[in-house]
Amino acid sequence: MTKIYAILIILLILIGGYKNMDIKLSTTPSKDIQIEETNVIDNMVPIILYDEPNKTVTFTITNESTNMFTFHFASTRHFSYQIKNKDGQVVQESPKDNQSPKLPSTFPVKPGGHISYEVSIDMLPKGDYTIQFVLLAKEIQPKLMLEFHVN
Fold this sequence. Notes:
It is built from one helix and nine strands. The chain has one helix at residues 2-15; strands at 44-51, 56-63, 69-73, 79-85, 90-93, 105-109, 114-120, 127-135, 143-150. A four-stranded antiparallel beta sheet has the order 5-4-8-9, with no helix packed on it. It is globular.
């Protein structure tokens, strides 16, 4: 912007129409302008919780920034999960990619808002398990694991 003003002043001086101009240029930003450089992705906080009475595991990502953020997905499938028993055998997992429509989708998250996915584990027999969740957004793919016990 300063370059444009300088060029205009030079042109006006060359033309000679404004010999007694009093022009002040300022290159410092106004104190009224607040510039916030925030990486919204760094303020996305993932957590995973086991709700034993309801036999569910919930994966949540909270937008702790002051800006709206929209997640972009390659399909209608927004996450994947896999549950393994104590021997490392997969006992439950999310449907494979070929079972989800390939329609791109989005999910906007307001400041303080969240995106959550709940998985029912009511069919699991008693025992120790590990669940791993992965968000399938194009921007970030946080991966969380949780060990839990089914009574």
